[in-house]
Amino acid sequence: MSPFFDTPAARFAIEAVREASILVRRVQREMIGDAITKDDKSPVTVADFAAQAVVAHRLAARFPDAVLVGEESAGGLKDAASRSTLEQITRFVQTVEPSATAESVCDWIDRGSNEAPATYWTLDPVDGTKGFLRHDQYAVALALVENGKVVLGALGCPELEGGVRPAKGGAGSILLAARGEGAWVQSLAEPNGKWTRLTASTSGDPAGARLLRSVEKSHTDADSIGDLATKLGVRADPVPMDSQAKYAVLAAGGGDVILRLLSPSRPDYREKVWDQAAGSIVVEEAGGRVSDLDGKPLDFSHGRTLATNRGVLVTNGPLHEAFLAGLKAIGA
């Protein structure tokens, strides 16, 4: 077992992501039933805020000077209209931190409202809203960034087993990666279980490339992805999947390519740091490659977004240059 598992940062990431993953699964189990309507986002709202509150509180206790850059802020929870939502969030936080009050929960959430300094942690408390609501794939994503580079990342994937096999209601997976130390997976349900090293696929044939595609089409340019697949002669059926769980699957060899092209409706959009940090290091440490659509490494030193990067291309490594060339050929 690599000694990096015993470093304070790695131990914190494992514990925090495991606790947050179990918490959001509890929210899902208790709040999402057969009667929920398609447009009811309250369960994921409660899960998002509760998970960020807990991780932020644990981070402050473990590393008092650490900065968290999180997806959520508590501003909207403090008005009268949101009182019942805040009460629900507080109730769930109290299941793991009994001292929590509505006021302290808001304070903990707002610890993630920072701009990014040179060194910071970044959190996506529930990545994959639609997957969470469907009891499908979603992830808790936490990463440590130093001087623009991700040095450690953890993913909690409650609906994956072995980091690669969809298993609704199963044991789940937690993945950990550190720069130069590899990418590893353990059962989410077994804190003392075996850690297994992950290795991306070695396929270099674009025709057989398995594209892991977002279920939510607004997140990318689906038409251009289709054009790219045609250009490269991709014959393998795409694998639809929400969230950074896709990065886990690619790292485990269950897929080969992930594309985040710019949606025509949002040509100036730039990725948020929490949407890419943890997943990117998991893939890279499994032998894959991550860049923007122009082949540049992702730069996490520009605040809360990847301001100098355009889109994202993630591959197993051997396929990367072919897909970059294909993107250039279709003008994406």
Give the strand content: 15-25%
How many domain units?
Answer: 2
Radius of gyration: 19 Å
- Average pLDDT across residues? 94
Q: Could you state the order of secondary-structure elements as H and E?
A: HHEHHEHEEEEEEEEHEHEHEEH
**CATH 4th-level superfamily of the largest domain:** Fructose-1,6-Bisphosphatase, subunit A, domain 1
- Calculate the terminal CA-CA distance, rounded to whole Å: 42 Å
Taken from the alpha-carbon principal axes, the silhouette is: globular
Strand order of the largest sheet: 1-2-3-4-7-8-9
Quote the CATH topology of the largest domain. Fructose-1,6-Bisphosphatase, Chain A, domain 1
The main β sheet shows up as: 7 strands, mixed
Can you count the helices?
9
Number of beta strands: 14
Using the 3D structure, state the CATH architecture of the largest domain. 2-Layer Sandwich
Residues in helix, %: 25-40%
Class by alpha and beta content: alpha+beta
Unreliable sequence segments: none
Account of the protein in words:
One of its GO terms (biological process) is sulfate assimilation. Mg(2+) binds at residues 71, 124, 127, 275. By secondary structure, the chain is of the alpha+beta class. The chain has 2 domains: 3-197, Fructose-1,6-Bisphosphatase, subunit A, domain 1 (Fructose-1,6-Bisphosphatase, Chain A, domain 1, 2-Layer Sandwich); 206-330, D-Maltodextrin-Binding Protein, domain 2, CATH 3.40.190.80. The chain contains 9 helices and 14 strands. The protein has helices spanning 8-31, 42-62, 83-94, 102-110, 129-133, 222-232, 245-251, 277-285, 320-330; strands at residues 68-70, 119-127, 139-146, 149-157, 160-161, 165-166, 173-178, 182-187, 196-197, 212-213, 239-240, 257-260, 289-291, 312-315. Strands 1-2-3-4-7-8-9 form a 7-stranded mixed beta sheet, sandwiched between helices. A 3-stranded antiparallel beta sheet has the order 12-14-13, sandwiched between helices. A two-stranded antiparallel ribbon has the order 5-6. Strand 5 and strand 6 (165-166) form a beta hairpin. Helix 2 packs across helix 4 and helix 7 (245-251) packs parallel to helix 8. It is globular. The mean pLDDT is 94.
